[in-house]
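Input chain follows. Return structure tokens only.
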Amino acid sequence: MDNNKQALLNLIKAESAEEVFDLLRNDPFLKRFNNKNWKPLGGDPTNITTAGNQQEDPINALVEKPINSIDHLLLKECKLRGIDPESSAAPKTMREAVETFLNIPDGDLSKIDDKTRRKLAENVRVIASGSNKTPSIAVADSAEGQHPSDFSNSLLSLPRGKSNKNKIHFVQGRFNQGATGALWFCGGDKFQLVLSRKEPKLLNSNQKDEWGFTLIRKRPYSEVSDDEKMTWYEYFADDNGNIFSFPGEDLPILPDGEKMKSGAYIKMYSYDLGKYSASDVTLELWRDLNRKLYSPALPIMIHETREYGGHSSSKILVGNKYRTIKDENEKVRERIVLDSNLGKLGVRKVEVTVFIDRDSKGKPFRGVKSEFATADEALFLTMNGQTHKTEPRSFFRRKEFNASLDFLADYLMVHVDLTNIPRDIRDELVMTSRDRFRKGDIYNQSIERLTSDLRENNILRRLNAEYKARFLADIQPDKGEVKKIVSKILKKNRSLAKWLNLGEGIPLPPIEPVNPTVFEPENPPTRFNLKVPEGLTPPYFKDFPINYKYVWLQFTTNAPDNYLETEIGGKII
């Protein structure tokens, strides 16, 4: 067998950073490269400043890998059709690309059947293997792939005056650095294997059909000279400084012995998954990834190849948006879409999902607390389906809401899609790591306006009253049990009892009546009234700063929801 191919198979078989380290010391072929032929990643010996300034969370860092895979799947489909991705003939958005290239209506994963979804998910895989305590994670795709001669300008490149995707509008990547964040969470010397074969139909006339591979590591401090202040990431090459390669063929390296034909395969050894490291990745990690990839452009297959009994070895990830629309909509009490003017972010569609508070048997429903939204993540701000910023559940209990959503807070999931915000605003708001926003005037103003619109939404206020009534009904005293419990507390604090002036009994707050209103639309509408705060009389005035470009006014109307929509060419606009 070809020495290069055997070395590659040995590296794929390794399941920990320790095993890779042993290969570099003891493998007859690989040990030649233990202390030589390493080249700085991106050709930059200061690359640690780029890779070390990425995502602070290992899951956010991991997400960048399948995001890259989806980008390159769409690029493959574009190039196979003879379209220059940077040309005016290329799709202008990721959703348009998914619809055009992969026949997904409106780029909406909820509009395809399960068989199609599973077939698409096989194009991007996240695979856990190795130790049950510290797994290795591989991300494999069937995208365009890269030729060994192009590795330095693609898989091993860093921003050096330009971005590989800056002029391509239907992909997520822009900065050519996000995927380096995962290196920080690899084990040992931060080992990561990079393997790729370019789609044979896309090979240039002077390119042979070959697999290329290399190993990335952080240079050990023992090999860094005393006069150098910091280490760097590097990859190994052959004696001629080239990427290791061998003839193109199908490789049986996917789960269940399935063969990989082309594309990219990235393996991160002993990857630190934090609290998910010792658990089945198709469970809690899958749930977290559904929050991080709230509405991905394409489905992703999650594989668990370690020995965990009682669960499926694979699971499809489609994001929480599509889960609640199609897969688990029985857990949704109400879905509301409203237009909110978020200042410089413009008018945005805000999707509010209210989950049920009782299951089919009338018992409190607790699943939402981990399935969809959590204490730390309940408001999701996304771009091209990837979550860039979240706010916690406590956001809906802030004083600005005046308790209007306090009983709904545990059952809310709110999503704002910021995909097409103006470029200048995006650059001011979004950090290059794509996992957080700058909390300046733009963000603060948008949150203030979003808060106002959520607080004033009549449907949410009505549901909050409904959930509150049920909650209070559950805690009404039964044979004086609540009174006994509170009495025990007050016995230890007589001054508190005196201050509360409780007297002989312990009053509980009354149940507020629920009076749901019924919306009766008319077409054509007969009402269009300016909404003004109580107590104001005409003429009405609204003050706003002189440097504002617009003012936000609200009206009430009995127009039907689709009154301003029309159908042109089979599409609703």
